[in-house]
Design a protein that fits this description.
binds zinc ion; 2 domains; alpha/beta; six-stranded mixed sheet; 26% helix; elongated; single chain; 7 helices; Aminopeptidase; 19 strands; 324 residues; six-stranded antiparallel sheet
């Protein structure tokens, strides 16, 4: 059996999947958008303090989760702060304006002398039509996820939503002065629910179908070790995958459904990216994304060479060791 050339494997693998390429499809994720996420307060400015919590910590915890999901969905995210330090209001505005952000999302928690005051609300600047639209979508999505009273969309003249030049909202996630609200806004699972709700509201604002981020194979690394050749797929989030031999055992295919493939910086041939490895165990690796499935193909020097596949978490990686 003669070894297949790169071109032949391309043809064979393309036959595995429906030969249909959407042309001129509408945008399906947030790629191309720049979004400013503003965690209120920070450093010497704790924001509201009550019930043993400081507002700045809640704001940052939610903002970082929002940023992660927006990035996983393709957006470029600009954070006004990514840690516990002080940033002035004018600096926050400058960061957003100079980065040319498309929208601005400020995250805060509320406080009131009446400890029974409870719930979330979303502000936009007075009379801002686009701000109102963004605020409405985000408010509606939070209401689906968070078991707190929806205090609704409101107008205000807060500095950061007044002086930013893009549509801007300020979310009050709940009251630090209310013990039930605190139990929600400090809970990591609920913080993720806020983040997903904000993502979905942003998707609606930009006319993108509401969805959770699709896992992306962001990189493929490899190295020859003593007795085995290791291939590592870096994936943006946990996902399922399958591995199988293909074409008389000359190839091991890693199939990652419902995933996207980043530009690996490899050589390209049509829809495929490929690289030589310098290893005699796996001389070539090919990768492509087709109809929402990522295929990574390891060319074997020895048909049916033994391999093992497993995953590592945080960050999520799919590892395939091919034994030589
Ligand atoms: Zn605040």
């Amino acid at each position: 059996m003669k070894r297949l050339s790169a071109l032949v494997i391309v043809v064979f693998l393309l036959a595995m999947v429906p030969a249909f390429h959407p042309v001129g499809a509408t945008q399906t994720d947030l790629s191309g958008y720049t979004i400013c996420v503003d965690a209120g307060h920070g450093g010497t400015d704790p924001g509201a303090v009550a019930n043993g919590v400081e507002e700045k910590d809640i704001n940052l915890a939610i903002a970082l989760k929002v940023a992660k999901l927006l990035e996983e969905d393709g957006a470029k995210v600009v954070l006004t702060r990514d840690g516990d330090y002080y940033v002035s209001l004018s600096d926050r505005v400058s960061i957003a304006n100079s980065a040319g952000c498309d929208i601005f999302i400020s995250i805060h928690a509320n406080a009131a002398s009446d400890t029974s005051a409870s719930g979330f609300e979303v502000y936009h600047y007075y009379g801002s039509t686009k701000g109102n639209l963004l605020a409405t979508y985000v408010d509606e999505e939070i209401a689906k996820e968070i078991p707190l009273k929806n205090r609704g969309v409101k107008e205000a003249g807060f500095y950061v939503i007044k002086y930013t030049t893009m549509p801007a909202i300020l979310i009050e996630t709940g009251f630090v002065t209310n013990t039930y609200d605190v139990s929600i806004i400090t809970d990591e699972n609920y913080q993720w629910k806020y983040a997903y709700a904000i993502l979905h509201g942003v998707q609606r604002y930009f006319g993108v179908p509401v969805h959770d981020p699709v896992p992306t194979v962001t990189g493929i690394r490899f190295a020859q070790h003593d007795g085995y050749f290791r291939v590592v797929l870096d994936v943006s989030q946990n996902t399922s995958y399958e591995t199988f031999y293909y074409y008389y055992g000359y190839y091991v295919v890693v199939e990652v459904p419902n995933a996207k493939l980043a530009d690996l910086g490899w050589s390209t041939d049509g829809d495929w990216q490929y690289t030589s490895t310098g290893s005699s165990t796996v001389p070539y690796i090919y990768a492509t994304e087709y109809n929402g499935t990522v295929y990574v193909v390891l060319e074997l020097n020895t048909p049916y060479a033994k391999y093992s596949a497993f995953t590592l978490s945080d960050p999520y990686r799919i590892v395939v060791d091919v034994y030589s």
